[in-house]
Amino acid sequence: MNTSRTRWFEWLRSGMLIGVMAWTASAVAQEAANPEPSAPGSRSGPVSDEIRELREQVRELQAAVAGMRSDWQHARAETADLRRELNEVRAGTGPRNAVLREAVVNAQTGAPQDDNQDQNEGQKKGEHAATLEEEYQLLSGKVDDQYQTKVESASKYRLRLSGIVLMNLASNQGVVNSVDLPTLAYARPAGSSGGSFGATLRQSEIGLEAFGPNLAGAKTRADLQLDLAGGFPTVPNGVNSGLLRLRTGTMRMDWTNTSVVVGQDGIFFSPNSPTSFASLAIPALSYAGNLWSWVPQIRVEHRVVLGEESSLTFQAGILDPVTGEVPVTASGYYRLAGPGESSRQPAYGTRVAWTQNVFGQPLRLGMGGYYNRQDYGFGRTVDGWAGMADLDLPLSHQFSLSGKLYRGRALGGLYGGIGRSVLFSGDPTIASTDVLGLNTVGGWAQLKYQPANKLEFNAAFGMDNPYAADLRYFRYSQAYGDPTLARNQGSFVNMIYRPRSDLLFSAEYRHLTTYTITHGGDSAGHLNLMMGILF
Fold this sequence. Notes:
Layout: H1 2-33, H2 49-91, H3 95-109, H4 121-148, E1 159-173, E2 175-176, E3 185-186, E4 195-200, E5 205-215, E6 218-227, E7 245-254, E8 258-266, E9 294-305, E10 310-319, E11 329-330, E12 334-335, H5 339-342, E13 347-358, E14 361-375, E15 381-394, E16 399-409, E17 422-424, E18 435-437, E19 439-452, E20 455-466, H6 468-473, E21 476-477, E22 485-500, E23 503-516, E24 522-534
Helix pairs in contact: 1-2, 2-4, 3-4
């Protein structure tokens, strides 16, 4: 009954489509045969622009229908083959499956064997039974994959949904700037309990990935990543209602050795970050030696193959010239230009990296550069810049070392200089106030030990160190927070266990020490327990 109804609908749809196309073609022919009189003084052509456009639309419609019909027939045939093979395995109707089925029955019932069979027949039947089970699971998985990939979208192209639901339990010893995502340690104020405890799911993420058509020989693809770490609504218990936030959103065109990427993404000239599920909303060791940011950008990547195991990658692009301030807005809605955007030019970045496979893992050494012009009004400009190097070094099949070093100035937009780009000698709105770009140096290193595919241990240390001479010269800052922050250090150890590819458990201990130019360092400890399910 369902088959007959489906065929009836297909005939009806085909008839309607043919009717529409025939009516359109008839209208086109009639209009072409009886053209309207031309206006006085105009030149009459054999076919008007309207008819030509209509014909092009008909051709495009025919091509689109043919493509959809071909894709549908191919998918239907593939699904039918998979179901047929699965039914054969279940029922044992195929010649090879019948033998396997008989082997399973004999193994289970202990049926007597023929005299001419050797003693290894029982072992062979057991192997056949195992093979049967593997084939059944494989075919079932293929059918499930066929079902799961049918995520509907407005276009005919494939759409993939992914993400993680992550629960974090956090306990702090000392005073920190954020209970669940601490990056700075503060002195204990009078009356403080000296610690805190909290739980959150705001580091959960959701992602969409769309696979588009081939264009000019390139595969097109787009992805969008969101989380719930965009702040808190001003309602009772608002800390449990994290606001949706854009992380990254990119569109790519990938040729064999060249890619063009457009959208908001991590800074490509400083790509790697320490491994931590306690810091998904912001990368680990932020303000403590890890330069990062999610910035709108356009970049080009080109790969040169040097051999079977090595290659060179060249990257260059322009970026939104962020400087680290809280957004400048009018009436809380309209966006106003910040110092970087007031310079009337983008930021620039470049990187070159060499990759070589070692111990089955990539050994990667990269070097990058960054430049950003900033304008603070009254002719006061600052040149922000950075030079950096990144390393991924496999030490064995189980140990690896990774890290990053940088030296630069006015890097608050990349979370360098403990979030500050410049210092002021006084009120920034007065023309006579001097502006100084804050120099800084920093980096981080991580040692990874992975005794099994499901288990890994990580230990990392990082530091961001603004120049003390700059801080003592100007004790005012255009950034939020304490203008006297002089150095920030962070370290952590964690364990990540994945019993399945879609399930993880992790525990991490982090230690922070923040120094100022007026007194010694303040320390805090942070313990984070995590459970996450990926989808």
